[in-house]
Amino acid sequence: MKFYSTNNRNHVVDLREAVIQGLAPDNGLYMPETIPQLSDSVIKKLPTLTFKEIGYEVAKNLIGNDLPDQELHKLIDHTLRFDAPLVQVETDVYALELFHGPTLAFKDFGARFLAGLLGYFAKAQSREITILVATSGDTGSAVANAFLNVAGTRVVVLYPSGKVSEAQEKQFTTLGGNITVLEVNGTFDDCQRLVKQAFLDTELKQKFFLTSANSINIARLIPQSFYYFRAYAQLKDNGPVVFAVPSGNFGNLTAGLLAQRMGLPIKQFVAATNANDVVPEYLATKIFRARPSVQTISNAMDVGNPSNFARMLDLFNQDFDNFSKLIAGYSFTDDETRAAMKQVYTKHGYITDPHGAVGYLGLKQFLKESPDYTGVFLETAHPAKFADVVEEALQTQIEVPERLQKFMRGEKKAVLISSDFGSFKEVISAL
Q1: Which domains can be identified in the chain, with CATH numbers?
Q2: For position 237, what pLDDT does the model report?
């Protein structure tokens, strides 16, 4: 499979280059040159396949012969050691639980897949691969834990000071080893900007073999498509399906679009956001207006300029009408999010995290207008990662899994830096 840059379709690379580069030299994002269609027979037999069998089938079609079959099986086995169960919350409403991995967030899928791929490619490298990752919370923990002690790699995590939960912070600041953490005095958008600038800096590119582990890396998106297939396989035949995706950088929704283009019969998507509503605004006005992010209780979605919007536009050939037909967009306040968490718990006994609650709200809004759909909202992180917010909303104490408690007992190690590129470059150059 070949991959092209969203900024220049004539710039084409193989899987290895797309994964290692992360971001194209022209600042574009890599996309598969062709999106393969799974046969009807494969789609029909999804309910009979294991999660690993589904992952292998999808990956094989997307990757082609760029990875030996034996290595692909090993990669899938490494990635999918935990399930993505579908849990019925109410009639025709399901939660797709994506928090059963080691850091209790959906990003474990993409991070483990990427770590496995880069670990494989690193064997042929004479230089250490340095992975830069900006995080609004869950990406940092997933990537840091996935790459911990992976030979030939170093991870540099950038996160906005005071804008992630304590549990999220502890999951990537307590590891040490080949994990370096930079606490940025700014927003997530500042962190993301620093990462992108690093890839355009000649001196840093000469000194380090750089790649990225954010959802700008195509290797993050590929495995995120797996659980859409897995969710569909668990559904009964209840009519057309809509997926409501709590969205920040929009990698998760883009992965869903990729699954749909491969033949998965998803009829509709909902882009559910918090106050950082640039995509719902685009759907309402036809104007995309990036702006500084604002802080909310669903902090992993606090993104004012989502990178994957470029991929979404590319999938629709910049056609607004087709974009808006398939994707509905809604945004919700923190108060609405708290009320939703309380309502779901009181009425149905199900505990959502703030991000899942935003997805639930988006789904319910869509179902008001289109009640014949079966709805799935993505529950992207374990509620215990946001215990303070959840417990305040529910007025009850929630159980904290032991693997999260273990992180909480660790000692924070991070370097505080300003949000200007000069400060970042000085610190990273000294590594």
Answers
A1: 83-105+220-400 (3.40.50.1100)
A2: 73
Determine the Cα–Cα distance for residues 362 and 358; give it in Å rounded to an integer.
6
C-alpha angle with apex 63: 52 to 270, nearest 5 degrees?
70
Confidence of residue 421 (pLDDT cuts 50, 70, 90): very high
Phi, psi at 32, each rounded to 5°: -60, 135
Burial label, 347 (beta-carbon count in 10 A; 0-12, 13-18, 19+): exposed
| Residue 311, pLDDT above cutoff 90 | yes
**Helical ranges in 22-106 per DSSP H:** 40-44, 51-63, 69-79
Which residue has 């092209």 as its token pair? Answer: 4
Calpha distance 306→308 (Å, rounded):
6
The answer to whether 205 is a known catalytic residue is no
pTM, whole model, 2 decimals?
0.90
Interatomic CA distance for residues 183 and 69, integer angstroms: 40
Of 44, 52, 107, 347, the catalytic one is 107
Q: Retrieve residue 401's tokens.
A: 């899994």
How many Å apart are CA 99 and CA 415, to the nearest integer? Answer: 28
